[in-house]
Amino acid sequence: WLAEGSHTDETLKESIKELYDAGYGGIEFVTLTSEAEYLDDETYGWGSPEWIHDSKLIISECAKYGMSVSMTGGTYWATANLPNITPDMQEASQELGYKTQELLGTEGTNTSYSGALPLCDLPEDSTQRTLVSVVAAKVESWGTVSEESEESTEGAETAEETEAAEEAAKTVINTDSLTVVPDENITDNGDGTWNVDFTAEDDGDYILFAFYQYGTSESYAASHTGKNYTINYFDPVGANALISYWDENVLTEDVQEIIDQIDECSLYMDSLELATMGPDSTKQLWCTDMLEEFSSRRGYDLEKYLPLMIRETPDGIEGMGTNLTYVFDNTETDEIDVTDLRNDFFQTETELYQENCLDVLADWLHSKNMKLRAEPSYGKTFEVTQTVSSLDYLETESFEFAGEIDSYRNFSGAAHIFDKRLSSETGASIATNYLWNSGYYRQLMYAQYASGIQKTVTHGYSSEYGPEESVAWPGYEGMTTVIAERFNKRQPSYVDSVDVNTHLSRIQKVLEQGEPQVDIAMLRTDYYLNNLLTSVSSSGVYNNRLHQNEAYYWQDMELQNAGYTYEYFSPYLLTDEAVDMSDGMINSDGVAYKAVIVMQDELPLESAYALLEGAQNGLPIVFVNNVVEDVNNDHVMKVNTTAGSTTGSNDGNDEELAEVVAQIKECENVRTIDSTEDAYETLMELGVTPRVEYEEPNAKILTNMRKDEDATYLYV
Predict the structure, then answer these.
(1) Across the chain, how many H-helices and E-strands are there?
(2) Best CA proximity match to 395, nearest among 531, 297, 590
(3) pLDDT at 151
(4) Which of 356, 130, 78, 88 shows the shortest CA–CA distance to 243?
(5) Comparing C-alpha atoms, which of 449, 392, 410 is closest to residue 426?
(6) DSSP string, 241-272
(7) Beta-carbon contacts of residue 133 (< 8 Å; ≥ 6 apart)
(8) What number of CA atoms fall less than 13 Å from residue 39's CA on the CB side?
(9) Which of 400, 470, 488, 668 has the fewest C-beta atoms lying within 10 Å of its C-beta?
(10) What's the whole-model pTM score?
C-alpha cells in the first residue's frame, strides 16, 4: 500500500529489493486512501504524473528481479475506479432509488392520485435522476409504527418470535395488484420532475412507488482529481472507460515495453465492495437497460415487481454476511415465486458482471500481455462460481473466510473445472499486528494448500517510509493500525523469511503440477456467499470450524473424515463447454470427479439435462434430500427438502424438470437418500471410494492430490 509523497525512487527500489531478498516472488501495489489527507492530491494522487512515474519504476524493478507485478483497477482496493468520470455519467456505478406516495382509500370511491411524483434524495455527488418506472400496489395491511415494532422485537425471546415481530412491522402489499402505471399517465415536466395520474380499480389503500436511476457517488481517494469514482460493472461503457483511461494514461508505450519483458503482469480486482449510497436506495445496483436485460434473459418482466426488490439489509460491508431481508412483505400468488424472482435478478446481475465487465477487461488485458486476477463476485449478490471462467487467476482470502476449507470449496470447484490458478490473500486480520508468529501463518497456509489453493499472497507489506503523522513504533504501518498483518523486516520472524518462502515455494510448485484429483462434485448455488467471517479470523483461525471438525454447507463430516475430497460449484457450470461427462466422470482428463451430489432443491432444467447425459454415461449421482446449510452469520439456515425439485427460477419448467430428474433416477448408478448421514454408505455401495482413504475416521488430516503424466503428488 503506497504512501505516495513519502517515497523517492531510491526508497521504492530499496523496498522492492527488501521483498526480493526475503524470497517473495511478486508484488501487488495499491495507492493508499488512508494517507490521502497528508497528500497534495494533484501532485501525488492516483493518476498523477508522479504516480505514473512510480508505477513505471515499480514495474521496471520487478522486471529486473524476475518478479511478477499486479496493479489494482484504481485507487484503494475496493472497486475499479477512475478520476475522469462523474456519478452522472453512465460509465460510473449506478443504483436504483425509490420514493413512495401513500394513498388512503375512501369507501365507495376509486382511490386516485393526480400530482407530482415524489423525488428520491440523491447521494452527495450525484445531481441527476432518471425515472425508471412508477408501480402501484394495493396495501393488504400497514406495518406497525417503528417504535412499537422495536419494542416487540426487543421483547422477543426466540428467533421465531423475533422474525414474527419483524414481519408484523412491515407493510404487506398484494402481489397480484402490482401494476406498472402506463407512460401516457406520466408527464415529464422537463425540469427533473414528473407528474402522474393514477386511478385504482377499487377504493382500497394503495402505494405509488416511483423508481429512479442515478449514480451511486461511490468514490475513493487518493486521486489526482480528489476523487476516483467507481465504474459501472453492469454496462460495458464502464469497463471501456477504464480501458480508454489506462491506454492513454497508464499503459503508455514505454510502460508497455517493460510489461512485455515480465512473465506475469496482472490487473488485480479485490473483493467487491461495490456500494449503493443513496438515502432512498433500493440497495440494488442498476444499469440503463437492466429491465430489458432481465426480460430477455429470464423470459418475463421484472418491472412491476420492483417493490419486492427493495432491500432492508444494508448494502456494502455493513450488510455482508447477513441474511437478506426486504422492506415490504407481500401476499402469496400463483403468478411468481418471490424467492425465485430475487434469484432470477441475482442471476441476471451475475451474467451482466461477467459479460460486460470481466470479459471485456480480460480481452483487453490479454492484448497487453497482462492477466486478469480477481476475487470475484463475493460481497455482492453475484453467484461466485459462474464468473470464474472469465478470469486468468482466481483469488480467495483467509481474512473474510477465516481459513475455512468449507468456504474455500466454493472457489476450488470452479477453479478446477476451468483449470484456473487458485490463490489466496493470506494473513490479514483486524488490529492484530505482531500477534502471531511464522508457525501460525504457515499452519494457515498449509490448510489452504490442502483446500486446493496453490499460491499464497501475503497481506501485507509496509515499507519504512510514510507520513510522519501516521508513524508509530515500531515504524510506519501503511495499512493503518486496523488492517494487519505486516510481512516486513520489523517482524521478528523476518530472519527466517528466505527459508520459509523457499519452503512454501516448493509446495506451491508441486501444487501447480498436472491436474487436481477431487473425488466428489457437490452442486450448490449461492447468490450471497458469506464473506464476513472476520471475527473468527481475527480471533485466530484455530477457533474456526475447520479446527472443530465442523462445516457450513455440507455439514456432515463423515465423508471428510473418511478421506473423501469434495468441493462446490453451481449446476449452471454443467452446461459449459469446459465440462465433459462422457465416460463416467466429470472431466476425466482433468479434475476427474468420480461422483456428483445434488444437495439443493434448485436444479436448472438445462443442468438436469446435462446430468441425465452424464448418468446415462455411467456417472454416479446421489440426490440428497433435507440438506441444511448455514449460509450467513445470522444463522438463518437454507433448509432444502427435495433435491432437484425446482429450477429455482420463474421459468415454468418445474414439471419438465421433474420428468428429467425421474429419468436420471432410473439409471442404475443413481441413488436418492433422505439424509447426509447416509451419503458415505451410499457412495461405497456405488463403488465411489476416496482416492486417499483412511483406515479409520480421522478429523486431523486433509489431503490434496494432483496427477501428472509421470507422477502422482499427494499433499497432506
Answers:
(1) 19, 34
(2) 531
(3) 45
(4) 356
(5) 449
(6) HHHHHIIIIIS-HHHHHHHTT-S-EEEEE-S-
(7) 180, 181, 209, 211, 291, 303, 306
(8) 29
(9) 668
(10) 0.96
